[in-house]
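User: I'm writing a tutorial on reading structure tokens. Could you give me a worked example: one chain, its sequence, then its tokens, then a sentence or two explaining what the tokens reveal?
Assistant: Sure. Here is the example chain.
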Amino acid sequence: MKGHLLHNDLSRLLRYRDSIYASDLLVCAIAYFDFFTFLNKCPKTFDEICNKLRIQPRPADVLLSLLVSMELVETCEQKYGLTELSATYLVSDKPGSLVPYYCSLKNRPQCVEFREILQTGKPAGWSSKKDGKDWMKSMQDQEFADTFTAAMDSRGVFLAQRLAERFNLSQHTALLDIAGGSGTYACSIAQINSHLAATVLELPPVDLATKRSIESKGMSSQVNVVAGNMFEELPTGYDVHLFANAFHDWDIDSVEKLTANSFRSLTSGGLIAIFDAHLNQFKNGPLSVAEYSCLLMHSTEGKCYSITEISDIFTSIGFGQIVVTNVAADRTLITGKKD
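And here are its predicted structure tokens:
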């Protein structure tokens, strides 16, 4: 029981960090787009919202998933409208409106950045660093790559163990952990599955940080590292491809390409496995995932995808037998089989 309570507490600690940009996106929507006043006139479709507010689909999708998860917006017949709460307090011309209260924070750097992201669709600098690069460009710098890899490793200590416990690989022999960062997921899985050969694929210079991390865990004899680009041809001979917290950094076209790359190089009967924070099929929660998606949308080309979005991509590429497994901290494992 004590361990279960600690796991719940750790999930809260992850959320405090991951949700840090959500409030800024809400402030931005109110202060710069008067979003709820706009929607109060009549419910609107996704395309109408994008076209009339001149905002891009990816950040608009993240914004709407957040507002629906916050129960500030509701959907009906593929249109978005206000809930009683937002209609009462977040419409600018209503008595007792809180719009001025939110607008008083509109000059926060993150709010200003979100305005540009919504309008252009392009990510801002990582952690709102002035004159900084977005996440993808920052990862080409050795110092940043080392720091970021260590940060993800600290989170993975908990999540990788939970994934390894829930992921049954007794019938598989070779795992490729694609964009595996510190290698913590490959290491945890290899510890539980001694029969399994594990390899981490990482792009230079991250692969150097990966090797050091695996050595520090004493797992170099069980987990190998290969330098390579996941958007190019993947190494063959593996019957499991793991993408752990990888898809959420990329746009939908890139996710489709990665899935297709996996399908081509997997052995017959192999599994593709996506471990990530996923929205549910209705994209109205979990709230923690909708909040995390704001951070990803801000600093990367991606977002948190829904279970349905990933499943549809799997099916379109040719994967079958799709299974969704709840793991921990609102993270889920989605697997598909290459028949």
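What the tokens reveal: The beta strands are 73-76, 79-82, 174-178, 197-202, 223-227, 240-244, 271-277, 320-328, 331-337. The two ends are 41 Å apart (CA to CA).
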